[in-house]
Amino acid sequence: MAGISALGVYIPCGRLDAAELAVVWGRPMGRGKRAVAHYDEDTFTLAVEAASRALRACDPSLVRAAFFATTTPPLHGKSLSALLGPHLDLPAALLPVDLSGARSGATALLLAGQAVAARGGMALVVAADQTLAAPGHDLEAQLGDAAVACLVTTEVAGVTLLDSYSTAHDFPDLWRRGTERFVRTHDLRYALQEGFAAEVGRGVAAALRQFGLTPEALAQVVLASLDQRSAEGPLSGLGFNPKAQLAPSLNLEVGLPGCAAPLLHLAAALGRAKPGDRLLLVAYGDGVDVLLLQATEQVARLAEQAGVARQLAQGHDLPYPRYLQYRGLIEGAKGTAEPFTSLTMAQREQALYARLHARVCPDCGAVITLDLRVCPHCQGQGPFAERPLSRRGTVFAFTHEHYFPCPDPPLTVAVVDLEGGGRLSLQMTEADHETVKVGDPVRLTLRRLHEASGYPHYYWKCTPA
């Protein structure tokens, strides 16, 4: 039986406060805060960060399929699940699957579970979204940024997938045309009442009949919604006790992160689950996916690995003007000439730039991150073996670049000595330049470097560990 054996959750540290938006726009903008990705993050980097956390205790070479769900891809017409491969050091013998749509995160988990149950192996599921509402829109304070990744296997699962039920029902809820950045809605109240509440009620009722269960047999129902009251309504009508059985909402701490919302709320709900508990995961979007799950003896380990509560506590407020600048909604730092790019060179150097592989001298053991034919330490001429670099290290030296155009100046560039050998010169991100010092521990994180030639270029940066 397939189940989730590892979880990785990434909630960006930035928080946009609805109270500040109310002051800016002179009217109520809801309550709570929403998670905001940094200026150099997009859904792909969010996905890589979450997936890296899920893969920490696993061998990436064992992954046989990668499912990537998002409604806000940085690239169209290209497989982002295939792009995950080199950045996560996945094998070339990989089935890449890209999904879109409001409930595609849960659908990806469902499909991965079916594939693993039928053929075995290990599948990686990643859901990431960065849904944007127009400045001043009612949804501006409600849509958050986040990513969740999970490994689906038939071994050592913390949660097993017992059964599922799905429906399809077209409804004008939230949408965005392909050429637009901002999400649209026609009548939010109508969408919640006649779309969300009605379809969830019908879908969950039918699922319970198929599963042969009553509401009392379920410990928790995981149901993400823009409005928590809209989630309580259909469940109450079916005989559930929402106060006791509905998993707590993260809307006031994170916002609703698009297709990642169901998996994010599931990760949080596992912190309350006990071995043997049965959970119902419900994902809405032009119909519903209803997944019946059961917690195992490993559920506490899975919840600790997700670390949702820890990441919620690490958030810091982001001023509204800085948020607008991060999202490119106002003019920020002074412009510069388009950066040099060579997709040919990037493809040729993918081993270092994407996979973070270096070469090791067979004579002296030096780790070489430059494309050299001769070892700079002992002048040995190889042949050099290839090995992955550590993604942790310490600052050897640094400089602050005040002239370089950056939405969050100054730009700090650090020379990092990696654990186990190797040295890289990297931009620092999400670091306080006034407190950076030699010897600081850092970790590597994938970020968007630039978009020369209309193509997003990704590379590793370092951030305080």
Describe this structure in words.
- It contains 13 helices and 22 strands.
- It has 465 residues and is α+β, with helices and mostly antiparallel strands.
- It has 2 domains: 3-326, Peroxisomal Thiolase, Chain A, domain 1; 343-464, no CATH class.
- The strands form 5 sheets. The chain has a 9-stranded mixed β-sheet with strand order 5-4-6-7-1-8-13-12-11, with helices on both faces.
- It is globular, with a radius of gyration of 23 Å.
- 43% of the residues are buried.
Outline the secondary-structure elements.
Blueprint: E1 3-10, E2 14-17, H1 18-25, E3 33-36, H2 43-54, E4 63-69, H3 80-88, E5 95-99, H4 104-119, E6 122-130, E7 145-153, E8 159-166, E9 174-175, E10 184-185, H5 188-211, E11 220-223, H6 228-237, H7 242-245, H8 261-269, E12 278-284, E13 288-295, H9 299-306, H10 308-313, E14 316-317, H11 320-326, H12 343-348, H13 350-353, E15 357-360, E16 367-368, E17 385-388, E18 392-401, E19 411-418, E20 423-427, E21 441-450, E22 457-464
Parallel strand pairs: 2-14, 4-5, 4-6, 11-12
Antiparallel strand pairs: 1-7, 1-8, 2-3, 6-7, 8-13, 9-10, 12-13, 15-16, 15-17, 18-19, 18-21, 19-20, 21-22
Helix pairs in contact: 2-3, 5-6
